[in-house]
User: Fold these one by one.
Assistant:
Number 1:
Amino acid sequence: MDMIHITMPDGAVREVPLGTTAAEIAQQISPRLAKEALVARIAPVHGSGGRSAKASDHDAPDAAPEARLDASSNGEGFLVDLRAPIDQDVKLSVLTPKDPEAIQVLRHSAAHLLAAAVLELFPNVKLGIGPPIDTGFFYDFVRDEAFTPEDLARIEKKMRELAAQDIPNERKMLPKPEALELYRRWNQGFKCELVEERAIEPMVSFYTTGKFIDFCRGPHIPSTGRIRAFKLMSVAGAYWKGQEGNPQMQRIYGACFYTQQELDEYLHRLEEAKRRDHRRLGPELDLFSVQEEAGPGLIFWHPKGGLVRKLIEDWLRDELLKRGYDLVVTPHIMRLDLWKTSGHAQFYRENMFGPVEVEKDDYQLKPMNCPGHILIYKSRLRSYRELPVRLAELGTVYRYERSGVLHGLLRVRGFTQDDAHIFCMPEQIESEVEACMDFAFAVMKTFGFSQYVVELSDWDPEHPENYPGSAADWAHATGALEKTLNKMSIPFKRMKGEGAFYGPKIDVKLIDAIGRPWQLTTVQFDFNLPGRFGLEYVGEDGARHQPLMVHRALLGSVERLFGILIEHYAGAFPVWLAPVQAEVLPLSEKFMDYAKKVTAALAEAGFRAHLDDRNEKLQARIRDAQLQKTPYMLVVGGKEAEAGTVSVRQQSKGDLGPRPLSDFLADLRKQVDSRTI
Ligand SMILES: [Zn+2]
Ligand SMILES: [Zn+2]
């Protein structure tokens, strides 16, 4: 009997008969592994003289290109069904739910299960494609009637029935003419089109799940029984092949995880994200708006939002001055020629608003602050004694974003960056980068974030021709970034080739209250602009040198930080940031005088208090203050007036009982001054 050699991940080699399957090998290793296995990864061992590697038919295009799961391109082999006979020497890994790749296979199989269930209930639907996605799967269908929520419930129920039957997912190879004939008889025009276009002859790969048969490269999990934790989420419109003008399809989305607990956590995160959505909370809390009349992507800061912005900006400007930055202000519109010198007019054109003609000269609304700061640096000759020069601006920029990608405060057409440019000597870069990172951490701490991810992005050393600056420049700058991160014991991910074209950078993504990452801080070197603008300083040696330039934004933009804060706190800002810190609620009309006194005392002490003097029931007024997420509610009646107290209710904790007004004021002072989160 022909034997083949299977190398396991631990290096152990097994000799097994030709045609042995991964499932059989898993069984030999342990029944438990066999039970948990979902799919296998194999990589042919070169020079083994194996015959037609199973790999070849896995190169057949799938009905769903998004579902491409094989990794043959990265040299690590490809995924195969557990039941696929192995016909040459290979390295083999049996993948269980612990392997992130295997979940995508499970989700792909869930897409097939969805199609199988839909066909049982609606035999006349036409099938499109059905790949796995990040959190689950989808399948596209054409049906005359729209799928209703009731239909989804029925389909999901049918999926559960079919899953419980543990129907095998079986691979079949058919000659192309037979494959076409099969789909023609079945009247599945879209599938015929896919087979015509994508099948590599002579044999076409199919998978069956009971009566359902799909043109698909796979792989799949062995049977439907393992698909347990799933939920159909929604129906959306989609065009065949994603092209407008093609037939409209209905795309059914599902979520799918290994365990019910993971699914529940995902559904909970979705609910939380909805509850925290700043686009909903913005108008509800009267913080900001986007006005159709004024144009999309342009933010109106309402009084309460404006107040939060003032607090953010005040903190930031004070910190900038403390940390040795100079505050500058540059024009919003400058000659187009300046943007030609900087290169933006050529390389950043598609993100810029069109030029404006003034006295036969073209002017450009600024998409970035860098050239403005460069002109200030260049306004006189600089000596090495002045360096580093740190120019900071809350600089409002305008960028042309397509209307389809605009998103609340996070993706806009006009925004204010907390931008700064540092011009320094090579020997100063390490301490400058360290100071930037220290500042970035102060931002996170102040605004209440404790988790973050840091990425260090470098150039692609195989294509130095794509970058300005010499290899030595890049090595020096990247080395400085890396050294600083190590020195500060900041863990980071190295992103090769992900740097800006003009220099390496550090990005900081913070993690919010529900675990979502948000890009915030960026610190970037620039080997491009100092040369373009001919920047210089006079060195200690009396000769002219080119300074190094660093761009850095810590908040990203005030708009962006505000959007993230709204979502992080679900609108309930910490007391130092809250637009209204205390709502004064007289028990009834009778106690209005005392209520006014309390409100005035708060204002006197520099707090933001509001008196709710509406003629409404106390419960209704408490509910409103609660909905407005006001941190404190101070209820005052006869007892309080007599004793000089306030009955304190905290938005997050409920009733705290009566306290002397002076005590409450002192406590509030402490919280605000220390920016308690
Ligand atoms: Zn498929
Ligand atoms: Zn810049």
Number 2:
Amino acid sequence: MASFDAIIIGAGQAGPSLAGRLAGAGMKVAIIERNLVGGTCVNTGCTPTKTLVASAEAARFAQRASEFGVVLDGPVRVDMKRVKARKDRVVAQSRDGLTSWLSTAANMTFIRGHGRFVGPHEVRVGTETLTAPRIFLNVGGRAVAPPIGGLDQVPYLTNSSMMDLDFVPPHLVIVGGSYIGLEFAQMYRRFGAAVTVVEMAPRLIAREDEDISAAVEEIMTAEGIEIRTAAKCLSVAKSGGEIALTLDCSAGAPVATGTHLLIAAGRRPNTDDLGLDAAGIATDNRGYIHVDDGLKTNVEGVWALGDCNGKGAFTHTAYNDFEIVAANLLDKDQRRVSDRLQAYALYIDPALGRAGMSLAEAKKSGRSVLVGQRPMARVSRAIEKGETHGFMKIIVDASTKQILGAAVLGPGGDEVIHCILDIMYAKAPYTVLQRAMHIHPTVSELIPTMLGELKAA
Ligand SMILES: Cc1cc2nc3c(=O)[nH]c(=O)nc-3n(C[C@H](O)[C@H](O)[C@H](O)COP(=O)(O)OP(=O)(O)OC[C@H]3O[C@@H](n4cnc5c(N)ncnc54)[C@H](O)[C@@H]3O)c2cc1C
């Protein structure tokens, strides 16, 4: 049995950084990866999708060129082989850099294979068994298909297999009107596909406030994307050369038909083949590993980081998990998961940046709430750029004056949100931001103005 000071299973968004810190502190570290270094984010998630989104934005800008007085001789065409090649280059650069660092770093043993517990502190990889007093799980998650009759009889795509497409499907039907589904919907519409999004909830991205769902739907339909909400997929079958989804819906046609089907309707943690029983590690009924505020599991000396612990579903939450574990173990700095604020973006164009609570959550918390709002149609920079879809909104606790949450759906929304997020981390009253002088012309310059117009919600 090979002994280490620490074993890390999964080289996703927390594992490699943690391996680096532990090895740097002099520990003998083994890191195990069964597939591609960098995990979902680098290979089939953030990096490739945002690279494709950039190509889609270029296509859209070219399609709108005449609005800006720019003349293109001939129609705009998208060469998907080149779009994919660009995406593959960006992904490979990130993955290869990380792989070569893991393979050569001092005190680090990089092992390729599937890691599985055979005891609380023993992990089997192939024929080898490793042991360590500290084991860190960073196994991430994967797409899960909903129970739709006949789905096992038709070919369908997931976020992973979408990465291999080097052509534009004539008609892409997407099951799932949430973050992943909407990003693919808009990018493939811009590449030239007809796109239908089927969502069983009454509105898109149903965890957001209703005004955000409505504005996002407006952005999608303005580009010719068909949105079918309140439509539950009952069954799917091949029909001629196409794929037909039978829907349970009160409005619209009871069938959605297309040439290709993408399932973007949820994810599950990769904990079902990890031998958790052999180690006695507890999960919830969906397979997410139970952790405390410092990311320790119920088994002494075992931690779980990233998507597999159910405390976040983003690269920045996985990376923050690494920071929390490293701070507690190496820096005598008692960082906690409960210290972090919710923050994320939806990378449609224009992007939605989100921080903290939605208005519905703030009201539900029983607080007395103030709200400020401004449409992008009244933001100079958005008008100048010809991007007036969307709005921004900020939610303030009337008694503490602290900002509870915000949404920026508009040009640069994913970046603009950070000035609000940082004030929230500082626990400063909103008046600090209201009095800040922001740069003209920017979207951010209207945040102080919006804060000057707060109203009771
Ligand atoms: C299409 C899409 C777009 C996304 N876009 C964004 C975005 O823009 N921003 C954002 O913040 N997040 C985004 N995400 C989410 C983000 O990718 C994940 O939250 C992030 O990758 C989680 O990191 P992780 O380290 O927990 O897991 P992962 O990145 O999934 O890494 C887990 C690793 O563990 C390995 N592994 C699993 N089991 C074993 C085992 N038993 N033995 C050995 N190795 C194992 C896997 O092969 C994998 O490499 C997106 C996700 C998808 C699907």
